[in-house]
Protein backbone atom coordinates (compact mmCIF):
# COMPACT_ATOMS: atom_id res chain seq x y z
CA UNK A 1 0.00 0.00 0.00
CA UNK A 2 1.37 3.44 -0.95
CA UNK A 3 1.37 6.04 1.82
CA UNK A 4 1.05 9.79 1.31
CA UNK A 5 4.27 11.78 1.53
CA UNK A 6 5.24 15.39 0.89
CA UNK A 7 5.51 15.79 -2.86
CA UNK A 8 5.55 19.53 -3.64
CA UNK A 9 6.23 22.63 -1.55
CA UNK A 10 4.75 26.03 -2.37
CA UNK A 11 7.54 28.59 -2.88
CA UNK A 12 5.17 31.26 -4.28
CA UNK A 13 1.40 30.99 -4.01
CA UNK A 14 -0.02 33.16 -6.80
CA UNK A 15 -3.59 34.51 -6.70
CA UNK A 16 -5.59 31.27 -6.67
CA UNK A 17 -4.49 27.62 -6.66
CA UNK A 18 -6.97 25.04 -5.35
CA UNK A 19 -7.06 21.26 -5.00
CA UNK A 20 -10.04 19.80 -6.87
CA UNK A 21 -11.42 16.31 -7.36
CA UNK A 22 -14.52 15.69 -9.52
CA UNK A 23 -16.75 17.56 -7.05
CA UNK A 24 -18.92 17.20 -3.94
CA UNK A 25 -22.26 15.61 -4.74
CA UNK A 26 -25.36 14.58 -2.80
CA UNK A 27 -25.19 17.50 -0.33
CA UNK A 28 -26.95 20.36 -2.10
CA UNK A 29 -30.01 19.73 0.08
CA UNK A 30 -27.78 21.01 2.91
CA UNK A 31 -26.96 24.19 1.01
CA UNK A 32 -23.48 22.91 0.10
CA UNK A 33 -22.35 23.47 -3.47
CA UNK A 34 -20.38 21.01 -5.61
CA UNK A 35 -16.99 22.66 -6.18
CA UNK A 36 -14.74 20.63 -8.46
CA UNK A 37 -12.79 21.74 -11.53
CA UNK A 38 -14.12 24.79 -13.35
CA UNK A 39 -12.75 23.30 -16.58
CA UNK A 40 -13.70 19.63 -16.41
CA UNK A 41 -12.04 19.00 -19.80
CA UNK A 42 -8.60 20.34 -18.81
CA UNK A 43 -8.72 18.66 -15.39
CA UNK A 44 -9.70 15.30 -16.90
CA UNK A 45 -6.87 15.40 -19.45
CA UNK A 46 -4.29 16.28 -16.78
CA UNK A 47 -5.31 13.18 -14.82
CA UNK A 48 -5.46 11.04 -17.94
CA UNK A 49 -1.93 12.01 -18.97
CA UNK A 50 -0.69 11.26 -15.45
CA UNK A 51 -2.32 7.81 -15.61
CA UNK A 52 -4.85 8.58 -12.87
CA UNK A 53 -8.42 7.38 -12.55
CA UNK A 54 -11.37 9.72 -12.97
CA UNK A 55 -11.92 11.73 -9.79
CA UNK A 56 -8.28 11.84 -8.67
CA UNK A 57 -7.50 15.22 -7.03
CA UNK A 58 -5.48 17.63 -9.18
CA UNK A 59 -4.42 21.23 -8.75
CA UNK A 60 -6.36 24.04 -10.45
CA UNK A 61 -4.11 27.06 -11.08
CA UNK A 62 -5.92 30.30 -11.99
CA UNK A 63 -4.02 33.25 -13.53
CA UNK A 64 -0.64 31.63 -12.77
CA UNK A 65 1.87 33.09 -10.32
CA UNK A 66 2.37 29.71 -8.62
CA UNK A 67 5.84 28.25 -7.99
CA UNK A 68 6.33 24.75 -6.60
CA UNK A 69 9.46 22.87 -5.50
CA UNK A 70 9.53 19.09 -5.82
CA UNK A 71 10.33 17.27 -2.58
CA UNK A 72 10.82 13.95 -4.40
CA UNK A 73 10.99 12.55 -7.92
CA UNK A 74 7.53 12.69 -9.53
CA UNK A 75 5.74 12.25 -12.83
CA UNK A 76 3.34 15.14 -13.38
CA UNK A 77 1.05 16.30 -16.19
CA UNK A 78 -0.05 19.80 -17.17
CA UNK A 79 -3.20 20.48 -19.22
CA UNK A 80 -5.67 23.30 -19.76
CA UNK A 81 -4.54 26.90 -20.12
CA UNK A 82 -1.08 27.99 -21.17
CA UNK A 83 0.13 29.93 -18.13
CA UNK A 84 3.74 30.24 -19.28
CA UNK A 85 4.78 27.17 -17.30
CA UNK A 86 8.49 26.54 -16.76
CA UNK A 87 10.64 23.83 -15.17
CA UNK A 88 13.81 25.28 -13.66
CA UNK A 89 13.27 28.33 -15.87
CA UNK A 90 12.94 26.40 -19.12
CA UNK A 91 9.62 26.70 -21.03
CA UNK A 92 7.29 23.76 -20.51
CA UNK A 93 4.80 22.53 -23.11
CA UNK A 94 1.32 21.74 -21.85
CA UNK A 95 -1.00 18.83 -22.57
CA UNK A 96 1.69 16.26 -21.68
CA UNK A 97 3.29 14.36 -18.82
CA UNK A 98 6.88 14.79 -17.70
CA UNK A 99 9.37 13.77 -15.02
CA UNK A 100 10.23 16.22 -12.26
CA UNK A 101 13.24 15.52 -10.07
CA UNK A 102 13.56 16.37 -6.38
CA UNK A 103 14.63 19.98 -5.99
CA UNK A 104 13.36 21.15 -9.37
CA UNK A 105 11.07 24.19 -9.56
CA UNK A 106 7.81 24.13 -11.49
CA UNK A 107 6.39 27.61 -12.05
CA UNK A 108 3.31 29.11 -13.71
CA UNK A 109 3.59 32.66 -15.06
CA UNK A 110 1.10 34.90 -16.85
CA UNK A 111 -1.84 33.68 -18.98
CA UNK A 112 -1.06 33.25 -22.68
CA UNK A 113 -3.97 31.06 -23.80
CA UNK A 114 -6.81 30.49 -21.34
CA UNK A 115 -7.20 31.16 -17.65
CA UNK A 116 -6.91 27.91 -15.69
CA UNK A 117 -4.19 25.25 -15.88
CA UNK A 118 -4.38 21.83 -14.23
CA UNK A 119 -1.48 20.00 -12.61
CA UNK A 120 -1.86 16.28 -11.87
CA UNK A 121 0.65 13.99 -10.18
CA UNK A 122 0.90 10.30 -11.06
CA UNK A 123 -0.85 8.61 -8.12
CA UNK A 124 -2.70 11.78 -7.15
CA UNK A 125 -2.58 14.46 -4.50
CA UNK A 126 -3.64 13.29 -1.04
CA UNK A 127 -6.02 15.13 1.29
CA UNK A 128 -8.72 14.21 3.80
CA UNK A 129 -12.24 14.23 2.25
CA UNK A 130 -14.88 16.56 3.68
CA UNK A 131 -18.47 15.48 3.03
CA UNK A 132 -17.10 12.84 0.68
CA UNK A 133 -14.83 15.04 -1.41
CA UNK A 134 -11.58 17.03 -1.30
CA UNK A 135 -13.01 19.66 -3.71
CA UNK A 136 -11.94 23.09 -2.43
CA UNK A 137 -14.68 25.72 -2.02
CA UNK A 138 -13.16 28.79 -0.39
CA UNK A 139 -16.49 30.50 0.27
CA UNK A 140 -17.77 27.52 2.27
CA UNK A 141 -14.45 26.71 3.96
CA UNK A 142 -14.56 23.10 2.77
CA UNK A 143 -12.04 20.73 1.21
CA UNK A 144 -8.72 21.51 -0.37
CA UNK A 145 -5.27 20.46 0.74
CA UNK A 146 -6.02 21.22 4.41
CA UNK A 147 -9.73 20.36 4.58
CA UNK A 148 -10.59 23.97 5.48
CA UNK A 149 -11.15 25.35 2.00
CA UNK A 150 -7.95 27.40 1.88
CA UNK A 151 -6.18 28.33 -1.32
CA UNK A 152 -2.51 27.42 -1.44
CA UNK A 153 -0.19 29.71 0.52
CA UNK A 154 3.58 30.07 0.58
CA UNK A 155 5.18 27.26 2.59
CA UNK A 156 2.27 24.83 2.20
CA UNK A 157 3.18 21.20 1.52
CA UNK A 158 1.17 19.18 -0.98
CA UNK A 159 1.07 15.50 -0.09
CA UNK A 160 0.97 12.87 -2.82
CA UNK A 161 0.58 9.11 -3.14
CA UNK A 162 3.25 8.66 -5.83
CA UNK A 163 3.16 5.84 -8.31
CA UNK A 164 5.28 4.81 -11.28
CA UNK A 165 4.00 6.20 -14.57
CA UNK A 166 5.25 6.96 -18.05
CA UNK A 167 6.46 10.47 -18.84
CA UNK A 168 6.14 11.89 -22.33
CA UNK A 169 2.45 11.12 -22.86
CA UNK A 170 0.79 13.79 -25.04
CA UNK A 171 -2.90 14.58 -25.48
CA UNK A 172 -4.21 14.23 -29.04
CA UNK A 173 -4.23 17.44 -31.05
CA UNK A 174 -8.03 17.62 -31.14
CA UNK A 175 -8.15 17.65 -27.32
CA UNK A 176 -5.80 20.63 -27.03
CA UNK A 177 -8.19 23.59 -27.02
CA UNK A 178 -7.20 27.01 -28.36
CA UNK A 179 -8.98 29.15 -25.78
CA UNK A 180 -8.31 32.35 -27.74
CA UNK A 181 -10.91 31.42 -30.36
CA UNK A 182 -14.48 32.72 -29.92
CA UNK A 183 -16.43 30.20 -27.88
CA UNK A 184 -19.79 28.74 -28.88
CA UNK A 185 -21.59 27.62 -25.73
CA UNK A 186 -24.27 24.93 -25.86
CA UNK A 187 -27.34 25.93 -23.84
CA UNK A 188 -30.35 23.78 -22.99
CA UNK A 189 -33.45 26.06 -22.88
CA UNK A 190 -35.07 26.08 -19.45
CA UNK A 191 -38.46 26.35 -17.79
CA UNK A 192 -38.70 30.15 -18.01
CA UNK A 193 -37.39 30.57 -21.56
CA UNK A 194 -40.94 31.25 -22.83
CA UNK A 195 -41.24 34.25 -20.50
CA UNK A 196 -38.62 36.23 -22.43
CA UNK A 197 -39.71 38.48 -25.30
CA UNK A 198 -39.24 37.22 -28.85
CA UNK A 199 -36.71 39.94 -29.55
CA UNK A 200 -34.75 39.01 -26.43
CA UNK A 201 -34.62 35.36 -27.45
CA UNK A 202 -33.43 36.31 -30.92
CA UNK A 203 -30.71 38.49 -29.42
CA UNK A 204 -29.74 35.85 -26.86
CA UNK A 205 -28.87 33.29 -29.52
CA UNK A 206 -27.74 35.55 -32.37
CA UNK A 207 -25.85 38.46 -30.81
CA UNK A 208 -22.29 38.16 -29.49
CA UNK A 209 -21.71 38.33 -25.73
CA UNK A 210 -18.58 39.42 -23.93
CA UNK A 211 -17.23 38.00 -20.70
CA UNK A 212 -17.49 40.63 -17.99
CA UNK A 213 -14.65 41.24 -15.55
CA UNK A 214 -17.06 40.17 -12.79
CA UNK A 215 -16.28 36.48 -13.13
CA UNK A 216 -15.09 33.83 -10.70
CA UNK A 217 -15.76 30.21 -9.75
CA UNK A 218 -19.30 31.14 -8.65
CA UNK A 219 -20.37 32.54 -12.00
CA UNK A 220 -19.59 34.61 -15.08
CA UNK A 221 -21.52 37.71 -16.12
CA UNK A 222 -22.06 38.24 -19.83
CA UNK A 223 -22.35 41.72 -21.33
CA UNK A 224 -24.50 42.35 -24.40
CA UNK A 225 -28.06 43.21 -25.41
CA UNK A 226 -30.57 43.64 -22.60
CA UNK A 227 -32.83 40.61 -22.20
CA UNK A 228 -36.41 41.38 -21.10
CA UNK A 229 -38.48 38.88 -19.13
CA UNK A 230 -42.20 39.18 -18.39
CA UNK A 231 -41.80 37.55 -14.96
CA UNK A 232 -41.67 40.20 -12.25
CA UNK A 233 -40.76 37.69 -9.53
CA UNK A 234 -40.56 33.97 -8.87
CA UNK A 235 -40.07 31.56 -6.00
CA UNK A 236 -36.44 30.51 -5.57
CA UNK A 237 -35.55 27.20 -7.20
CA UNK A 238 -32.67 24.78 -7.03
CA UNK A 239 -29.73 25.85 -9.21
CA UNK A 240 -27.72 23.37 -11.24
CA UNK A 241 -24.33 23.74 -12.89
CA UNK A 242 -24.44 26.12 -15.85
CA UNK A 243 -27.79 27.75 -15.01
CA UNK A 244 -28.06 31.04 -16.93
CA UNK A 245 -29.96 33.50 -14.74
CA UNK A 246 -31.14 36.88 -15.97
CA UNK A 247 -31.42 39.52 -13.22
CA UNK A 248 -33.40 42.76 -13.65
CA UNK A 249 -30.55 44.50 -15.51
CA UNK A 250 -31.06 42.02 -18.37
CA UNK A 251 -27.44 40.81 -18.42
CA UNK A 252 -27.14 37.02 -18.03
CA UNK A 253 -25.07 35.29 -15.37
CA UNK A 254 -23.83 31.75 -16.05
CA UNK A 255 -23.44 29.94 -12.73
CA UNK A 256 -20.46 27.65 -12.27
CA UNK A 257 -19.07 25.20 -9.70
CA UNK A 258 -19.12 27.35 -6.58
CA UNK A 259 -22.61 28.79 -7.20
CA UNK A 260 -25.32 29.13 -4.57
CA UNK A 261 -27.71 26.18 -4.38
CA UNK A 262 -30.97 28.15 -4.92
CA UNK A 263 -31.86 31.27 -6.88
CA UNK A 264 -34.89 33.39 -7.76
CA UNK A 265 -34.04 34.97 -11.11
CA UNK A 266 -35.63 33.63 -14.30
CA UNK A 267 -33.37 31.42 -16.38
CA UNK A 268 -32.79 31.13 -20.10
CA UNK A 269 -31.70 27.57 -19.42
CA UNK A 270 -28.44 25.83 -18.53
CA UNK A 271 -25.09 25.52 -20.23
CA UNK A 272 -23.91 21.97 -20.81
CA UNK A 273 -21.02 20.76 -18.60
CA UNK A 274 -18.60 21.08 -21.53
CA UNK A 275 -19.87 24.60 -22.27
CA UNK A 276 -19.20 25.51 -18.61
CA UNK A 277 -15.66 24.19 -19.01
CA UNK A 278 -15.11 26.30 -22.11
CA UNK A 279 -16.54 29.44 -20.47
CA UNK A 280 -14.29 28.93 -17.42
CA UNK A 281 -11.25 29.43 -19.68
CA UNK A 282 -12.45 32.76 -21.14
CA UNK A 283 -10.66 35.95 -20.16
CA UNK A 284 -12.59 39.20 -19.50
CA UNK A 285 -13.58 40.84 -22.77
CA UNK A 286 -13.54 37.61 -24.74
CA UNK A 287 -16.44 37.01 -27.14
CA UNK A 288 -18.81 34.08 -26.68
CA UNK A 289 -22.06 33.03 -28.36
CA UNK A 290 -24.94 30.97 -27.01
CA UNK A 291 -26.30 28.08 -29.07
CA UNK A 292 -29.58 26.38 -28.17
CA UNK A 293 -29.26 22.57 -28.19
CA UNK A 294 -31.55 19.67 -27.38
CA UNK A 295 -30.97 17.52 -24.31
CA UNK A 296 -30.09 14.57 -26.55
CA UNK A 297 -27.33 16.56 -28.27
CA UNK A 298 -25.78 17.72 -25.02
CA UNK A 299 -26.00 14.25 -23.48
CA UNK A 300 -24.38 12.61 -26.51
CA UNK A 301 -21.51 15.13 -26.44
CA UNK A 302 -20.93 14.52 -22.73
CA UNK A 303 -21.08 10.73 -23.08
CA UNK A 304 -18.57 10.89 -25.91
CA UNK A 305 -16.28 13.02 -23.73
CA UNK A 306 -16.53 10.68 -20.73
CA UNK A 307 -15.93 7.59 -22.86
CA UNK A 308 -12.35 8.78 -23.44
CA UNK A 309 -11.65 8.53 -19.71
CA UNK A 310 -13.45 5.25 -18.98
UniProtKB/TrEMBL annotation:
Keywords in alphabetical order: ATP-binding, Hydrolase, Nucleotide-binding
Ranges of residues in domain Carboxyltransferase: 29-309
Transmembrane segments: none
InterPro entries documented for this protein: CT_A_B, Cyclophilin-like_dom_sf, PxpC
Top-rank lineage group of the source organism: Bacteria
Name of the protein: Biotin-dependent carboxyltransferase family protein
Amino acid sequence: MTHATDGLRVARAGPLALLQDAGRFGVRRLGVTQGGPADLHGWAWANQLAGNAWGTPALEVTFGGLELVAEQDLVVAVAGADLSATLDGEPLDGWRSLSVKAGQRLAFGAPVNGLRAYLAVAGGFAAAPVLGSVACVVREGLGGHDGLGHRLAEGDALRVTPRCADAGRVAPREAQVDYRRPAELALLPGAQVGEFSGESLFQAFNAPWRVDDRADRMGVRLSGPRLDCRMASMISEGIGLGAVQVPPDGQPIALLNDRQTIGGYPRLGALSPLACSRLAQCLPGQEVRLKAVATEQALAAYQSFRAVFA
